[in-house]
């Protein structure tokens, strides 16, 4: 009888545990949205965060989940529209675009890989981003009648405004601190300003990015940097900290360790880079207009 009673108690305990874990699973893996009938679950949001190199705790995940979900909804709408238009991007096209990028920017494999680390991206993430960019351009070609152009007047104006940065490459050395939360980025910058601990100590304790060599990135060419990085670094003196800024859904703090002049750039390379810098935000603005139109026609239900 004692044995039977003990077994019954264990069965009851097992059932209670199973039911409780089932309820917890329902909370974690609930449906958070439908997009034209396609379901998105909370687990998929967490998986998306992990694919972007983020490993947030529960409180942080819940805080940013709605923002991540909006991005995922846009991705789903884009994919659905691409399928409707029968637009596909092959792996070889992605590889070819990356090769051309290296040629255009005169990047060695090491410089390219350093650029990925600057963006907090893996090679696979960059390939997927490249695939999305190719798809965006093709969809713009299909659906947007007004062409995006860069005029000579715009090129001349850009030259006039950025003359100090053009013509000769600039090389910087940095320390980078990558964080998953804006509030933490702000509070850590304040603590660093007060000298409560060193930048290297902050990297070791808190960074979600590279920790090797105290987060130091050496011999970074100015032409490798996207505009958010340039904006953060442009007015810094050696030894100063940047304000927090967002890259790939993460918050970044930079410390400028050194700045020096590099080789003179060829005029043709400079003009091509200028045209690309002017074209990129124009294309993005036009694409966002297009996405707003697609989103307005989609049947979306958010439950988050």
Structural commentary:
There is one protein chain. This protein is of the alpha+beta class. The protein has a domain at about 170-265: Chitinase A, domain 3, CATH 3.10.50.40. About 60% of the residues lie in helices and about 15% in strands. It is built from 11 helices and 7 strands. The protein has helices at about 1-30, 40-50, 60-85, 90-105, 110-120, 125-145, 150-160, 180-195, 200-205, 225-235, 265-295; strands at about 30-35, 40, 170-180, 215-220, 245, 250-265, 300. A 4-stranded antiparallel β-sheet has the order 4-3-6-5, with helices on both faces. Helix 2 packs across helix 3 (about 60-85). The longest helix has about 30 residues, at about 265-295. The N and C termini lie far apart (about 50 Å). Residues about 1-25 have low confidence and may be disordered.
Descriptive tags:
single chain, 304 residues, alpha+beta, 4-stranded antiparallel beta sheet, 3-stranded antiparallel beta sheet, 7 strands, disordered N terminus
Strand content: 15-25%
Radius of gyration from the alpha-carbon trace, in angstroms: 24 Å
Please give the count of helices: 11
- The CATH class name of the domain at 168-264 reads Alpha Beta
Distance between the termini: 51 Å
Mean pLDDT: 81
Structure in a nutshell:
The chain is an alpha+beta fold.
Q: What is the strand and helix layout of this fold?
A:
Elements: H1 2-28, E1 31-35, E2 38-41, H2 42-51, H3 58-84, H4 91-104, H5 109-119, H6 123-143, H7 152-161, E3 168-179, H8 182-193, H9 199-206, E4 216-221, H10 227-233, E5 245-247, E6 250-264, H11 267-297, E7 300-302
Antiparallel strand pairs: 1-2, 1-7, 3-4, 3-6, 5-6
